[in-house]
Fold this protein.
Amino acid sequence: MKLDKILILATHYDDETYGCGGTIQKLKKLGKKIYLLVISDPSGYVFNKKKLLNRYNEIKKVKKFYNFDKVYELKYPASQLYKIDKTRFINDTKKIISRIKPDTIIMNHYNDAHSDHREVFQNMRYLMKPFRYNYIKNIFLMETPSETDQGLILVKDTFKPSLFVDISKFIDLKIKALKIYKSQILNSPSSRNVETIRSLSRIRGGQSGYKFAEAFQILRVSID
């Protein structure tokens, strides 16, 4: 499986950490190139200037923490992605993807509870055409707590893990990154509670023979 240039496609800042924070750290340790494309900007739903500034400060710290090879931001207003013209969306993302030419894309699940997540997946369906983007060998869907686990619209379309990544050596780094997003962490009981995230990683590890793991659903894998 080719896994050298990975693009994390996050609908919102924090999706990348909740969904694959440990995997990002592991791949970086292995010397892989990691790119981040964030579709939305929190100004779409955070209207208090002080809270918005705090959110931007968190984002700044997270970008420094991960030290991605490159971060791209479309800055569409969060919670309002349904208003974005589909053609504009496709053209904006195509430019970035064509520039990076990733062999692997990690993005949100198609049945997540958040309408922004579903909108992004539907708009990104053009990536499923291998004859147009033959350099994209793998497409994985990540598990985003409080969104993927609440996607109950169609039970048959719920998240079904088929790929597990051992993050036993990186769980503490994942938690450290999560804690930077202080404004997004909720008190227990909640899917967005730090201990819940750690517990989910332990469950996914138990399912796959690791101490801690992150789970993904394979949408496509191509082996040359």
User: Anything to note?
Assistant: The chain has one domain: 5-221.
